[in-house]
Amino acid sequence: MKNRGITLIEVLIVVALLLGGLVPLVKMIIEGLRGTQIMGSITVANSLAQSLLEEIKQRKWDENAPQKGVYIPTTSASDTLGPDSGENQNYRYTLDDIDDYDDLDDNPIKDESGAVLTEYANKYKRSVVVEYVNVPLGGTVTVETGTKTDYKRVKVTVEIIGENRSVTQSVILANGTFY
């Protein structure tokens, strides 16, 4: 009986075969982990956008409305979009109607009182655009520049810093409705 061991060449062949199979597997795992990280960032961005939209929806439709859900004639609506006198976007609790959020730049991300939410700092930033829109039945929504309508569209965009990605959510709010 011959006592035969494994030769160096046989070992090298096995190692080469293992490496040839492991490299694509490791690459696939790394790409999967990166995809999971991206999806996690997008999920957080969607949550940040939705939470700000919900905050905005708690406000009156217009500065001149006596309370949320009360219709006012469009001619009585505030002439400008954006914060009114005594309101400060850094302290969002001072904002009382939805168009006060127009041109909000929430970077770093803050709560209504202006406190920085450190878990989102340097990772995300939010911005808001509020605009009057025309909403024809069965038609296309159009922006009405310089014309007041009974509809305001609120768009919240959350940018994921360093990933060149963003999420935008929008809602159209009608004059005099509870939302």
| Residue runs with pLDDT of under 50 for 5 or more positions | none
How many strands, which pairing sense, and closed or not: the largest β-sheet? 5 strands, antiparallel
Instruction: Tell me the total number of β-strands.
Output: 5
The pLDDT mean sits at: 91
% residues in beta strands: 15-25%
Helix and strand run: HEEEEE
Which class best fits the helix and strand makeup? alpha+beta
Radius of gyration: 27 Å
Number of helices: 1
Q: What's the helical proportion of residues?
A: 25-40%
Number of domains: 1
Shape: elongated
- Termini separation comes to 88 Å
Describe this structure in words.
The chain is α+β, with helices and mostly antiparallel strands. It has one domain. The chain contains one helix and five strands. Strands 1, 2, 3, 4 and 5 form a five-stranded antiparallel sheet that branches. Strand 2 (124-134) and strand 3 (142-143) form a beta hairpin.
Main features:
single chain; alpha+beta; 1 helix
Topology:
Layout: H1 8-57, E1 105-106, E2 124-134, E3 142-143, E4 151-160, E5 165-174
Antiparallel strand pairs: 1-2, 2-3, 2-4, 4-5
State the gist of this model.
This protein has 179 residues and is an alpha+beta fold. It has one helix at residues 8-57, and strands at 105-106, 124-134, 142-143, 151-160, 165-174. The chain has one domain (32-174).
